[in-house]
Amino acid sequence: GQEKLSCNPRKENRTHVVLCELGNPMKASARIAVDMELSVSGLEDVGDTIAFQLQLRSKNSHNPNSAVRIVKVPVEAQAAMELRGMSLPATAVLPAARQALEGSRRLEDHGLRVEHVYQLHNKGPGTVSGVTLHLAVPSHLGGNPLLYLLELGTEGGMNCTEPPGLNPMQV
Fold it and tell me: How does this protein lie in the membrane (predicted)?
């Protein structure tokens, strides 16, 4: 039959130990299968495996401790990233031929202001670090100016590298 084990975590010699009572007394040559589900946190820096040491201990005076068995379990980080974006205004109609006022430093003289906002979300279940997002923005179309890249801003502790040609006329 199946029954739930009573397990208690504790520390022994700076090592985390989980002690499970399997039953007492047991008959000689008894075989027991145990399935354990463990929840382990703080695995960000453990690499690609985590090792568990398993040992049976008994109050039997003839053979109180079994050999230590090491079980290696692969660690795989999983996180789903989602990129959301929008433009303000949502649509913009640009004239076929646009003439910017040469030498003007006023934004209105260079065309319609369009703001693009992107949000990168971690949908989990794990945490992420070291994420790189490459965003290509077309600034010219057919040799003619399409978008004038004015500024780049971030929120939430991100670092961004400014693209070449950002606000070349210092508008």
Answer: Single-pass type I membrane protein
Are 6 and 21 in contact, with CB atoms under 8 Å apart? yes
Length of the chain: 171
Query: How many angstroms separate the CA atoms of 159 and 135, rounded?
Result: 14
Q: What are the domain boundaries of the chain?
A: 6-74, 77-170
Amino acid at 54: L
Instruction: Indicate left, alpha or beta for 5 from its phi (over 0: left) and psi (-120 to 50: alpha).
Output: beta
Cβ-contact 78, 139 below 8 angstroms? no
For the segment 83-135, what is each residue's pLDDT rounded down to a tens digit? 999 988 888 887 666 666 677 777 777 777 888 888 888 888 777 777 888 88
Q: How far apart are CA 151 and CA 147, in angstroms?
A: 12
Q: What pTM was computed for the model?
A: 0.49
